[in-house]
Amino acid sequence: MIKYLNPSYVFKISGKLLNLFKTLLIPLVAIGLIFSLFLSPEDYIQGDSVRIMYIHVPSAWISLFGFAAISFFCILNFLFKLKNVTLIYKSLAPIGLTFNIVAIVTGSLWGQPTWGTWWAWDARLTSMLVLMFFYIAFIFSYKFIKSPDRSIKACTLISVLGLINIIIIKYSVEWWSTLHQPSSISLAKETTVHFSMLIPLGLMVFALFMYVAVIFLMKYRIETIRIKRKGFKKL
Amino acid sequence: MNFEFFIMNGFGIYVWSAFAFTFIVCLFLYIRTRKTLKKLEKDFIKEANNLSEDQFEDIKNQKIAKEILISHSRS
Hints:
The structure holds two protein chains of two kinds. Chain A is built from seven helices and no strands. Chain A has helices spanning about 1-5, 5-40, 55-80, 85-115, 125-145, 150-175, 195-235. By secondary structure, chain B is mostly helical. Chain B has a domain at about 40-75. Chain B is about 85% helix and about 0% strand.
């Protein structure tokens, strides 16, 4: 287990995985787009606007899973002071923020033809906007707080508060009456999305997660090289 | 080419805008990250070459530094 957390081992593996994921990325995105734009049927109520779901839903999931992972790694780092973990959450945060913005913008573009408005201050939309501010605060706290101890404390505090917001996002459509529909895909309940739409959605989720993996590995290598360069100055 | 496909019964503007926005953002993030990585690798090699011979040998024996040197020479 210790071997797998060793920075030099992770760095070596990241190079190999990066090449593999880069090779798989373009064909996966191409297949996902063909299914989402050409092969999937239109919805009987929403018509073709339902195709926005194939990028909106994966983006929202990436943004939520991203912050949940950041919180997990922050707590791990706060408790056990693992240097490698800092690199992981620093690499994850910009990706999570990007997909949070994508989810908000694509949601807005889906909202106009479906609800007749670009934006509404309902619980789901507002809590997603709040998540964006948590991401920004988190990035600022490791970029601008110079003292490592204070930076870790600030990051942990923001990530724990953000985690509460993640729970609010998840249950907002059940706790309050919202314009946003309740979740159609669930592990606990029966999925209400038709199989013909689940395939393109699954493909796009896979393709976008592959993209996230590529960016994450590149960012991980960037952070590692930055630390190594600091070592030069001490020589 | 079927023009109807692009219009998507009037929803085309929303659908294409959403896909285009996502594509542009993802492409921008990829290019920016790749550029930063390449620049840092280049600077790392440059700084490593400025070290004395003994220091350079020390760096070469470090696994991560060795990996950076190899991956940069490959690219």
